[in-house]
Amino acid sequence: MNRIDTFLELAVRQGGSDLHLVAGMPPRVRSAGELQPIPFRELSHQDLEGFLQEMMPPALRQQLDERWNVDFAYVSTVAGRFRANVYRHSNGIAAVLRAIPSEPPTLESLGLPEQVRQLLDLGKGLVLVTGPTGAGKSTTLAAMVDHLNRSMHGHIITLEDPVEYLHPFKNCVITQREIGTHAPGFAEALRGAVREDPDVVLVGDMRDLETISLALTASETGILVLGTLHTSGAIRTIDRIVNAFPPRRQDQVRTMLADSLRLVVSQRLVRKLDGTGRLAAAEIMVSTTAVSSMIRQGNTHKLQSVLQSGQRLGMQSLDSVLLDLVRREIISGEEAYEHAIDRTQFDRYVAPAGDIAA
């Protein structure tokens, strides 16, 4: 057993999501959203070098030397599968390893409404899962892929950096490609994927203009494209896609997006009041006729009212979800206030500064 596996096993046993290893500091585990130290001495540069020798083959070590950071998947014999990032910093080397459960969750267990499943079952168009780093986007996408793997008969291609959840063949043929190992970049991988007879393509990160453009084009051809962006809120997601293009193309992109978009799930991870962990609070925008019209006309500022009034269609604003969690005493008012878009409606749930000291 590798030495690092001991720390990973401890992190998993404590219910931690991430293990942080930094030269000059003791190991730390993120549990319920907060970093807690593991009772151990400070890690030296030599300790980290030893861990890297255990985890990384020579090709990855070379990438680290050339790029100063590298992403990859690591499989521990005792603790399971992890997404790893190793990087250099002022005191030497550091690594963060995120635990990946052996089985993806179900859409139901994530609390997503029935309309999400129904829109996936249409089997075409663009579905976006967005949120800040560490918001559980990969987990939600894995649940979507697992649902499709069980409910349809087709070819699912995932393009990831790195591959996280491993999906076995169920009703579908699934091919999972890792950026940097099986393809040089997302755009190149997506360009090839549309020629590989796909029914579904998952794009792990729509981070540049070329990838966004290819994903939009693919979604117009009858392929179901699942994509992710690092944006906060469904409305900002629309603006982010449109603004990625030069002004002369933005009207065309609005039309493409209005025609192909099916669903936006924009989520945050919020801490539970009882301290047992975190859960996803998801804003959901379904592309109805009204939503498509507003996108096409460039009136995204009007979408907030549609989110607030579209509950029967499966829509929900982030603030309405947070408010419901506060009223059911699942999260604190302070936690809701921290993540809310319009914080004024949460003022009454937050104790004044003077009361905190008391």
What does this protein structure show overall?
With 358 residues, this protein is an alpha/beta fold. It folds into two domains: 98 residues, Beta-Lactamase (2-Layer Sandwich), CATH 3.30.450; 203 residues, P-loop containing nucleotide triphosphate hydrolases (Rossmann fold, 3-Layer(aba) Sandwich). Helix content is 38%, strand content 25%. It has 14 helices and 13 strands. The strands form two sheets. The chain has a seven-stranded mixed β-sheet with strand order 9-8-10-11-7-12-13, sandwiched between helices. Strands 3-2-1-6-5-4 form a six-stranded antiparallel β-sheet. Strand 12 and strand 13 form a beta hairpin. The radius of gyration is 21 Å and the shape is globular. The N and C termini lie far apart (51 Å). The model has no long low-confidence stretch (mean pLDDT 92).
SSE arrangement:
Elements: H1 3-13, E1 18-22, E2 28-31, E3 34-37, H2 45-55, H3 58-67, E4 69-76, E5 80-89, E6 92-100, H4 114-121, E7 125-130, H5 137-151, E8 155-160, E9 173-178, H6 186-193, E10 200-203, H7 209-220, E11 224-229, H8 234-243, H9 247-260, E12 261-271, E13 278-286, H10 289-297, H11 303-309, H12 318-327, H13 333-339, H14 353-357
Parallel strand pairs: 7-11, 7-12, 8-9, 8-10, 10-11
Antiparallel strand pairs: 1-2, 1-6, 2-3, 4-5, 5-6, 12-13
Helix pairs in contact: 6-7, 7-9, 8-9, 9-10
